[in-house]
Amino acid sequence: MAQSDKTAKLSFGDTELELPMYSPSAGPDVIDIRKLYAQGNVFTYDPGFTSTASCDSTITFIDGDKGELLHRGYPIDQLAAKSHFLEVCYLLLYGELPTAEQLEDFEGRVTNHTMLHEQMMNFFRGFRRDAHPMAVMVGVVGAMSAFYHDSTDIGDPWQREVASIRLIAKMPTIAAWAYKYSVGQPFVYPRNDLDYASNFLRMCFSVPAEDYVVDPILSRAMDRIFTLHADHEQNASTSTVRLASSSGANPFACIAAGIACLWGPAHGGANQACLEMLREIGTPDRIPEFIARAKDKNDPFRLMGFGHRVYKNFDPRAKVMKESADEVLDLLGIENNPTLQVAKELERVALEDPYFAEKKLYPNVDFYSGIILDAMGFPTSMFTPIFAVARTVGWISQWKEQISDPQLRIGRPRQLYQGATTRDYVDVENR
Ligand code: ACO
């Protein structure tokens, strides 16, 4: 924990408090309110945690006004251009870029854990064929704690390490099998001579009757999607993982909780919702109608893929994703795809509209990732599972950091209670 170098004065009624403040290595100063209740008998009120730091962390930093995202200090655009997903995983997990030997060792360890316990196949088969792959992932990842008992003791650093590697290694297999099950095709086993992204694409698109030969441009685009989604500091799903973990829950249960949270359309579900919205718009001439709806206070409709809680500037991941979208569509020869035309025109119109400019609503990473995944042949229902595959390393890194923190306490927010005060029970015949 950073040392207190200044204080904040808080006065209310007859009470005057001096609260410690900390200066982070980047970002705004933080007021330490941990003793506020004990010393002042008040709580703070911050639904949505817009002004509350829930932990101290050294993993990821976002400057939303500048549109900057750093992993262990390295800008995301440099990582997307020069690095690759497994190297970024190493960086997030262990804090530094690996040497060549460390990377080889890490890749070997991940590769050795890509297969699932054979009995887990029966677990998949228990779901309905039309189950959403995210529902299957929540269930299967939660069930990992029933299959891998030897890595559930969170007090043992070795077991924590094994659980981390298992989750990163097995998540593509789980997502691919959820997909295969939904389309009625046989499960495809991982192949350890392929890189992480190529292996995932092959497990999704290969069938026993015809192998899937992975195009390096598609594999690179998939790897970039994984890299760009790897971590995003204390977002809703990561905070969910941390809150679940604060009770001492095992890593598989915590990551299952993160997947459940990611599923929501305001978070990881936005890429699916965005592509569905682009299809619903259908043709560029209908864009004004949807822009008008997004601006109408009486209409709950929002432009999916626009806006972000933290970025009040262009999402730096969206810039890289846009380049990738151009590369993939060029390779597949589908520049004239109607959904893409709607997306490009919608982006242009929204960025010129004063409503979106004033509210600092820019396209986010999900605006472009859906277009790429659609072009690769993924159904919209697979968009969020792919996000979950990528984010697993972020969840795991944050979980490991939290577990090793000697100050760890169970997460237990307070509330502003607005309900009835004490009243006596009334028997049913007298109500
Ligand atoms: N379309 C239209 N108006 C919007 C949008 C949008 N996409 N997003 C925000 N606004 C408006 C709100 O109506 C609100 O207007 P008001 O101040 O007049 O009431 C203002 O902008 C601020 O919105 P909030 O909901 O307070 O912003 P918040 O930070 O809580 O929400 C969120 C961020 C959830 C991402 C929001 O922008 C949204 O719903 N976007 C669409 C869903 C989406 O793309 N999510 C992906 C996020 S990225 C990720 O998870 C990887």
From TrEMBL:
The organism's superkingdom is given as: Bacteria
- Pathway membership, UniProt: Carbohydrate metabolism; tricarboxylic acid cycle; isocitrate from oxaloacetate: step 1/2
Keywords of this entry: Acyltransferase, Transferase, Tricarboxylic acid cycle
For this protein, what reaction is catalysed? oxaloacetate + acetyl-CoA + H2O = citrate + CoA + H(+)
One GO molecular function term of this record is:
citrate synthase activity
**Any idea which residues are catalytic in this one?**
308, 366
Q: Which GO terms describe its biological process?
A: tricarboxylic acid cycle
* Keyword Acyltransferase annotated: yes
Q: Which GO terms describe its cellular component?
A: cytoplasm
Q: Does the keyword Transferase apply?
A: yes
Q: Which InterPro entries match?
A: Citrate_synth-like_lrg_a-sub, Citrate_synth-like_sm_a-sub, Citrate_synthase, Citrate_synthase_AS, Citrate_synthase_bac-typ, Citrate_synthase_sf, Citrate_synthase_typ-I
UniProt similarity note: Belongs to the citrate synthase family.
The protein here is known as Citrate synthase
